[in-house]
Fold each of these.
Amino acid sequence: MGAGKSTIGPKLARRLGRRFLDTDAEVERAVGSRVAEIFQREGEPAFRSLEREAVEACCGQHAVVALGGGAIESPGAPERLASSGTVVYLRARLSTLLARVRDAGGRPLLAGLLPKAQSERLSDLLARRRAAYESASIVIDTDDLPPDSVVEALAARIEREAR
């Protein structure tokens, strides 16, 4: 949430000559509703089930795939993702993430919370997901890097690992 997937993903896909897929967008397309609406109407467990289906459909495709922040928490997800491609963690400090998600309206896990509560919630989510995030084969800190620098660094690593 706020790490830069929506910015970096499409640019990286273009740089590598691949398609870009976003699992949240895939869920929205399949259901015909925005993620926030699914959360509100059906709850987080229903969304996570749809998300698992979208992740599974994207695995193994020759694409750059942006996962929602909680997708990695699904049982077996880190292993499944690692077996189907290069997993990248766009890591950022809590302060950076909070600055990037100022308007949390489209982010159901932060929506309706005051800034202090948003900070606490995001901190808790990061702590809970840290081990899964850190299991990625490429971890890059995005705090002080412009998007194009992140893209070039990732492309170089991915191309080097593909050889």
Amino acid sequence: MRCFISIDLPEEVKKELAAVQSQIPKENAKILNVNPEILHLTLRFLGEIDDFKANKTKEILNSLKVKKFKAKISKMGIFPSENFIRVVWIGLEPAEKFKELHELIDNELEKINIQKDERFESHVTLCRVKFIKDKKGFMEKLKKIKVKEIEFNVDKISFKKSVLMPEGPVYEDISEIKLI
């Protein structure tokens, strides 16, 4: 099964991010918004794993002792570069706290032979980009979008299964881990 570990976002944050998505310039471009209902921060994408590794992952996550913390949405960005835009994202702060959480999970998963993922940026993918005619103009407009920095509590981690469908991915919770 195709799985990932994430931080889910509260409804208030999803509404703000949907408002941001609506301001992203789409003229002379092919840009697909991520469904606001499934917006999240991916702490660790696992890809295809078998039932054994899924159960072990669940055990590992349940054994973690991580304290709750406050976070907020912050600045917008793109991946991988301004010359080759494929993703528009919004950052989450405190970035170092999300990085610590990612590294903690990565180190534990390595014990069950799931390779480390060195590339981590605390972000929520807003849009996937297929084509932009005027990248410079796009970036200028993107930088003018105002984002309301909403603060929220991070009090759980979700372990999810992802099923790819023609209309987009469908996520199913495998388990939720409450933070202390």
